[in-house]
Amino acid sequence: MLTLSLGQVFATHFRAGEITARRLSLTTPTYEITLTGYFDELDGKQAADGQNSVIFKIGNATGTGTPVLLEAPRRARNNIGNNTSQNIYTATYTFLTVGAYRISMEVDARNDNILNLSPKPTRELNFYVSTTIEINAAFGLNRTPVLRNAPIDIAAVGQRYIHNPAAFDADGDSIAYRMYVPQQGGTNGAGVNLGYEAPNLTTPPGQTETGASPATFGINRITGDIIWDAPVTKGYYNIAFIVEEWRDGALIGQIVRDMQIIVDDARNDRPVIPPLQDICVEAGTLINQKVNATDKNGDKLNLTSVSGLYDATLIKPAIASFAVANQGAQSSVTGTFTWQTSCDHIRLEPYNVLFKVEDAAPPGYPNPSLFRKLVDMTTLNIRVYGPKPTGLRGTPVTDPSGPAYRLNWDAYKCQVTGAKIVIYRADHCTDIPEDVCITGIPAGSDYEEIGRVDVNQTTFLDNNGGEGLRPGVSYSYRIVVLFPRPGASPGEPGYLFGGGESVASAEFCLNLPVIRPVITNVTVDSTSTTKGVITVKWMRPAAATGLPAQYRLFRATGQSGTAFTQIATINTNLTPGAADTIFVDRTLNTEANAYNYKLEYYTTQNGQLTRFDESETASSVRLEQAAAQPDQIGLKWTALVPWDNSNRIHRVYREDKTKPGTFNRIAEVAVGATQIFSYLDDGTDKYAADGTVNVTIVKDSTYCYKVETVGSYNNSQIKPSVLYNFSQILCVSSSDTIRPCPPVLTLDPLNCDSLRQHPGAFCTTTGFTNHLSWIYPKQADGRDCDPLINAYRVYYARYEGDAPTLIATVTTPPSPLKTAFDHEGLTSFAGCYYVTAVNRFGSESAPSNTTCRDNCPMYVLPNVFTPNGDNKNDTFQPLECPAFVQSLEFRIFNRWGAEVFSTRDVNINWDGKTNGGKELAAGQYYYEVTINFESFKKEGVETSMKGWVQLLR
Length: 953
Known about the structure:
By secondary structure, the protein is an all-beta fold. It folds into seven domains: about 15-265, Immunoglobulin-like (Sandwich), CATH 2.60.40.10; about 280-385, Immunoglobulin-like, CATH 2.60.40; about 395-510, Sandwich (Immunoglobulin-like); about 520-620, Immunoglobulins (Immunoglobulin-like); about 620-735, Immunoglobulin-like (Sandwich), CATH 2.60.40; about 745-855, Immunoglobulins (Immunoglobulin-like, Sandwich); about 865-950, Immunoglobulin-like. Strands 1, 2, 3, 4, 5, 6, 8, 10, 13, 19 and 20 form an eleven-stranded mixed β-sheet that branches. Strands 37, 38, 40, 41 and 42 form a five-stranded antiparallel β-sheet that branches. The radius of gyration is 41 Å and the shape is elongated. It starts with 13 loop residues before the first strand and ends with a strand. Residues about 1-10 have low confidence and may be disordered. Pfam families: CHU_C (PF13585).
């Protein structure tokens, strides 16, 4: 390890600085070493004037032995504002051997009055920084990252401060960041930690810009954003952080930057740059990115940008540019970042571009030199990927080893020296995610690399390594281009690592046509005991043999149910776009049951519909409670489907109790290779994209959930490629261990014929009784049921679809497996019931099956009446008592078909006259009556009757 150290030559009043290095030769370990130092030009100008050189100390990483001293002259000095100058010191050194080295430098003294460093006074503390590098011929002409953004900015009391070093690695190595402690020089070029407090801990706790407490301070390990939200006390603060350089998973170097933040009680608001979204572009794309900045105080703005993309020594041309109209003249400015990307810019790591806005004293400001300029900044990350290879195709060929394919493709756009075309193969047609920010072949997609050729090649023979391909397999192929790191030397280890990839080519697959329908969705749309809804979708066959054709959809209760009943017949001509591949299954008890579906496919053979094939069965997703701690809810779900739901990201939703009926996604669960999936909810919302709704899991409180499975057939011929299906809604309590299972309910049959044989049985409007009985199961849907049931709850709804109400709580008899209840005093037999079981924790099961009962409708008309005024049989009306009639429409006609009377009176009460009061002649008349009987359905049950009646006088 190499250490550069600056000796005690001048009192320079150092504010900030870092050391960088770059290798100059592949044959010798010769490096150019640079110190970029930032001096206080207000209180230390004289010392800065005299600091014409610095001393580097070069030693091994362990700190043993005497370090080499290397003097580096000053090459440049630039005033960068804020009473600060940037000073560049450079020297060249050839190392004796490979290994890890530390380069350090130290110089008296830091500037005074730094609030968060000790001991005091800080002017008596020297300034020290170091950089470590790994010298290895395998790393080629490696360069440390360079930090393009100066480490001096003004922060304002009470306002959020942000800084980013704009680190740029020309070799395409990965960069990471972490906080460090400012140091002063020790022995043998090592550093010694100073007394240090994080800036937000140096002052009273304070609060953030938005009013949260306490103030916060930290660095983002990935982006390098340093955010202090927000300073409390004005003054100088120094912090240090490390910029790490990674290659092929190994740390190969790190830079320590020591920087100063100047906090002032500015009577000014910082300008604002809205964040920019990261972008991914294909090599060859011309980027024109607009960058906006505003100042609410109306201060004039300067919008600038720093990046290695502007430096031709760091990237191959074309370099980027940044232009700002009306620079420094308006309080709202827009800049345009322009970069013509090329094949030379392809790499794995994104390029970063820092945009920084600084305000200036407004016109008429009393003393512009005292105006504290404030800044804001944002970073644009740009990933440049290789173009997608095109024209992949294959031809079966004869090979001595057996079946083989000759693959061919179009000449590739980016002929980058050293790039390779990688050929991948899978044993079935398969889709992969299509996203320009996802290059290469995603992990877990079943593709395996089978060969590589140079980027200028356009053909490859796949004979399975000389063993021949397996007959009858639908092989799938894709190709990807792998690029070397920018500046890497052919032959060095890791040459192709970090250089990036192209997007994968389109698939070439020996496609065997799908000749039967394939179910793709069984998703629960609505959870209810009587009005549950499941949508079933399928994909039509590719083959159009034997048209017209027909689908027949079957349903069975239970995920593994086999008692299938046909529920739909759908004719089809396999017309693209026709709505013949979807069925919405309604009036289900999705709360208590899962359902299983299959599809039969019929084609026309010899003029007759003939069963051709049937699909595999597919069930709805069933969500259940799993074992958990008292402050957690355990969930598990299953789906017996022909597609693959494993090794995917499933989605878990929880009802927001403040918004009943609204479900918030709380987690995305990475599931393994299993058909039973699970999640443990501790109340934390782990998915923030739709808003964060955290809860505290409380004993005996109920929480409602649903899950959405994500699956695929992994077959590019089956669309859509990704399948989403919801479970039913499950409401559970943390007190549940084994949740009670729903009982199985029956209603005693109603013998309508017997009732009708008893005249006057329906003349009362009260006193009807429904007798319910149920059985409690030991198992349901393959799970054990809690045997310790304390009570059953009986729910009733007058009409199907109404919200059921609790009408009784029945304590269990000595045997908890069966009980009964009489619902008495009814005015109608019609209604719907379900029963739930309640365990010792008060946890209630899902509802039983919902059972609805209809009435015994009765409406009997005579065939003769005598409207002669003797008060005996003078009107035509129903015999006995009409039973459960909601409404009717009665019409009577003479023998020539003319209507002579009509009424809506349930009892009719026709007196032998027309509606106008004219007496009708004796004779035979004909009637039609439409009756709407009371039912458990709100719309009732409509019945039509026709007959004749003899009018006698």
